[in-house]
Design a protein that fits this description.
Blueprint lengths: L3 H7 L16 E4 L9 H10 L9 E4 L14 E6 L7 H15 L4 E5 L3 H6 L2 E4 L1 H7 L18 H13 L4 E6 L1 H16 L5 E6 L17 H22 L3 E6 L6 H10 L3 E2 L2 H6 L4 H17 L5 E6 L2 H4 L1 H16 L1 H5 L4 H11 L2 H9 L2 H7 L16 H18 L9 E6 L1 H4 L5 H19 L5 E6 L9 E6 L4 E6 L2 E6 L9 H15 L15 H4 L4 H7 L8
Parallel strand pairs: 3-4, 3-6, 6-7, 7-12, 8-10, 8-11, 9-10
Antiparallel strand pairs: 1-2, 2-13, 4-5, 12-13, 14-15
Helix pairs in contact: 3-5, 3-20, 8-9, 9-21, 11-18, 13-16
The structure holds 1,6-di-O-phosphono-beta-D-fructofuranose (FBP).
1,6-di-O-phosphono-beta-D-fructofuranose binds next to loops.
Length: about 550
């Protein structure tokens, strides 16, 4: 069922770097040495784990003087998966990839496995052809193929994956995913190279969380659209708060461990309070310190007759509060090492008792001091990559409960005279499948073209990267970056594992500096900024905006209006 919006949006032609117009005659140049930021010891371990793919150069894709045109290039057969959480722009990556392959040869064939990597294991796929690409171009969602969080992990799964991909006779696999999915892509690339298989593996940086970025990757696609949508909703809630003057709105925002989404949304909307998990951790603030900070603002605002406000809370906050972080570390180990026994305990009370008995004295104290609902949420299964599912922990409600109880104390002491009424919100899923902004539509499409170019150039174990994102599209630069260069060794599910390093908010970076400069002014003055809805049609000033944090990281910070 189509709508006027869908019909018009389908006509949008994503913009991309000029060099990607003639993929069949591309060449690569080494783009300087590839340097890793991890310790020498970790680099040595990574080299041992990835003997075939570690240490490859970063490559720039373009037309050099030595370019050799390969007019009658061999058709490509490629498989693609969408992996992990939905992010606006996923379909455009597939359209870009499909169109890159068509440039190489009209006989190229793209197949998409359904439901993430489990689709490969089940050999469940569909053929992506021109009609499919035309139907899904510029649309949000991952519904063309579906997605999944399963991981290809055991020797048997690697072998099945190889069997399926080799039976389809594919030249390459493109994994569109976040840090964990791209880690899986690196492992697959190494596996295929070690067995001299022709299957090459390329990753594409996807996630609304914005935590898949580093010195080579400026942004992940999907972040811009999701934050813009959350910012519109926060702006609307701010207007409601300012009109009704009766509620404090505690708004938890998705983003997993990293607070990038919350930071960007704050720069776009100017809430009264914004919590940044990375700062809470650095300042070693306990749960009660965080609550006290909020309470102090509420007391101050009450003195000027403002008993309403907007508080932004990153969903990963709870993992950064020192006593809870320590509790998580203990819980993760207990849950991983006792999973078989725990599966036999069916009631929450019996699980709770067993775990409490295994926890250290401090761990048990922290755990017992939390409300039962939160305890229950902390014990929920980790995802297949060993991550705590923070989207399911209602931190905003925990904060409300503790703030309310502290304000009651202050009221009885006569320090606070207001009435604390509150609303809680969780903004997450509503942003993940929106139609991509122009920026995400163009960026994702360019990443797809780049992935196709990398496969045509015959490399493996690379991430498709587009650089110079704050410049005009003709200055965007397509690059291939070795996946192993982004890795470090971390503790996952009780074991040391190579994983792509998550990027957290840098407290010495320009976006956080801008927030610090501005946020004092937002506490008492209601400086709410109305960011408006995502605009798809109209003047470039509104349609072609970039994330403020991306601009602050790349451009002159004074030129960024926040
Ligand atoms: P990715 O890391 O896979 O991109 O997922 C992003 C995300 O939306 C997080 O912000 C959130 O914590 C998580 O997915 C929720 O996962 P699920 O979709 O499994 O509930």
């Amino acid at each position: 069922m189509t709508t006027p919006f869908m019909e018009q949006r389908a006509l949008y032609k994503p913009r991309y770097p000029e060099a990607l117009d003639t993929i069949s005659s591309l060449s690569t140049e080494s783009f300087g040495n590839c340097t890793s930021d991890v310790s020498e010891d970790q680099q040595k371990q990574l080299k041992g784990l990835f003997p075939k793919t570690y240490g490859q150069p970063v490559i720039k894709i373009g037309h050099s003087k030595t370019t050799t045109a390969t007019k009658d290039a061999k058709p490509l057969k490629v498989a693609v998966i969408l992996s992990g959480g939905q992010a606006p722009g996923g379909h455009n990556v597939i359209c870009g990839l499909y169109e890159a392959m068509q440039q190489v040869s009209p006989d190229s064939q793209l197949i998409g496995f359904k439901g993430g990597s489990s689709g490969i294991l089940k050999d469940d796929y569909l053929v992506v052809d021109k009609d499919t690409a035309d139907h899904f171009r510029n649309t949000g969602g991952f519904n063309m193929l579906g997605s999944g969080r399963a991981k290809i992990e055991s020797a048997e799964q690697f072998a099945t994956c190889a069997k399926v991909l080799e039976r389809h006779n594919v030249d390459g696999l493109v994994v569109i995913g976040g840090d964990d999915s791209n880690t899986n892509a690196a492992l697959l690339a190494e596996y295929f190279k070690a067995k001299n298989s022709k299957v090459k593996v390329i990753g594409v940086p996807k996630t609304i969380d914005g935590d898949l970025k580093n010195k080579y990757v400026e942004a992940s696609f999907g972040f811009d659209t999701a934050v813009r949508l959350y910012s519109e909703l926060i702006s609307n809630i701010s207007r409601d708060a300012q009109s009704a003057k009766k509620y404090y709105h505690f708004i938890r925002l998705m983003g997993r461990a990293a607070s990038h989404i919350t930071l960007e949304a704050a720069l776009q909307t100017h809430p009264n309070i914004v919590l940044i998990s990375e700062e809470v951790e650095l300042e070693k603030k306990g749960l009660f310190d965080v609550v006290e900070d909020i309470v102090q603002v509420i007391v101050q605002r009450n003195k000027v007759d403002k008993n309403y406000g907007i508080i932004l809370v990153p969903e990963g906050l709870i993992e950064f509060i020192p006593e809870i972080k320590a509790l998580f570390d203990e819980l993760n180990d207990i849950l991983a090492t006792n999973s078989t026994y725990l599966a036999t305990l069916h009631s929450f009370t019996s699980k709770n008792e067993y775990i409490n008995h295994k926890l250290s004295k401090d761990g048990s104290y922290t755990f017992s001091s939390l409300p039962t609902d939160i305890q229950r949420q902390l014990l929920m299964d980790r995802d297949p990559h060993g991550n705590v599912q923070v989207s399911r922990i209602e931190t905003e409600k925990l904060l409300i409960e503790l703030v309310e109880s502290r304000l009651r104390e202050l009221k009885s002491e006569g320090v606070y005279t207001g009435d604390f009424a509150h609303q809680s919100h969780f903004l997450g899923y509503e942003g993940r499948c929106a139609a991509p902004t122009n920026f995400d539509a163009d960026y994702a499409y360019s990443l797809g073209l780049t992935a196709g170019a990398l496969l045509h150039l015959g490399v493996t174990g690379y991430m498709s990267v587009v650089k110079n994102l704050t410049k005009s599209r003709d200055q965007w630069q397509a690059v291939g970056v070795p996946l192993t260069t982004m890795m470090n060794i971390e503790q996952r599910n009780g074991q040391k594992k190579p994983v792509i390093k998550k990027s957290l908010v840098s407290l010495s970076g320009a976006p956080f500096a801008k927030l610090k400069e501005k946020r004092e002014n937002w506490i008492l003055n209601d400086d709410y900024r109305f960011s408006g809805a995502i605009q798809y049609f109209g003047p470039p000033e509104v349609c072609d905006q970039l994330p403020k944090s991306l601009r602050l990281e790349s451009d002159d910070t004074q030129s960024v209006d926040c």
